[in-house]
């Protein structure tokens, strides 16, 4: 249970283990349930196109008390990249916390922020973490630069 009282649904962990062990799932997008009481799996996919994943994250919506805004999300992405100098290919499971600075309602943003650790701590095997609050921070090249140097 998180500081906000939000629980992590067991499907979140089982889907993560599928990604980690099976390697057929490329990414998982998590969201808070409509009543903001539980973190649930919104979607998982085998689609390896970063742009499709990025669009889904950036187009997410959240509503609260009849108002709608941009939706924060959590995601896990099985990031594959080439090492410099032809040293081979690496995979790193990256935990992404997406919470847009502009257009997000206050309650969803605060609830996501205070619930992140509960989900992250439930997922054993995360290789890097990214906090993204604007479109530049969720670009493939930005994340690649950070995780390939071990920064995030």
Task: Report the end-to-end length measured between terminal Cα atoms.
Answer: 25 Å
Radius of gyration: 15 Å
Q: Strand content of the residues, in percent?
A: 25-35%
Strand numbers in spatial order across the main sheet: 1-3-2-6-7-8
Low-confidence stretches: none
DSSP summary, beta strand count: 8
Coarse shape: globular
Main beta sheet: 6 strands, mixed
User: Which structural class best describes the helix and strand composition?
Assistant: alpha/beta
Tally of helical segments: 4
Helical proportion, percent range: 25-40%
- The secondary-structure element order is EHEEHEEEEHEH
The chain-level mean pLDDT equals 90
Q: Overview of this structure, please?
A:
With 152 residues, the protein is α/β, with parallel strands linked by helices. The chain has helices at residues 10-22, 50-58, 106-122, 140-148; strands at 7-8, 27-32, 38-45, 61-64, 67-70, 73-82, 89-98, 128-132. The strands form 2 sheets. A 6-stranded mixed beta sheet has the order 1-3-2-6-7-8, with helices on both faces. The chain has a two-stranded antiparallel ribbon with strand order 4-5.
Short description:
The protein has helices at residues 10-22, 50-58, 106-122, 140-148; strands spanning 7-8, 27-32, 38-45, 61-64, 67-70, 73-82, 89-98, 128-132.
Keywords:
152 residues, alpha/beta, six-stranded mixed beta sheet, two-stranded antiparallel sheet, 32% strand
Layout of strands and helices, then pairs:
Elements: E1 7-8, H1 10-22, E2 27-32, E3 38-45, H2 50-58, E4 61-64, E5 67-70, E6 73-82, E7 89-98, H3 106-122, E8 128-132, H4 140-148
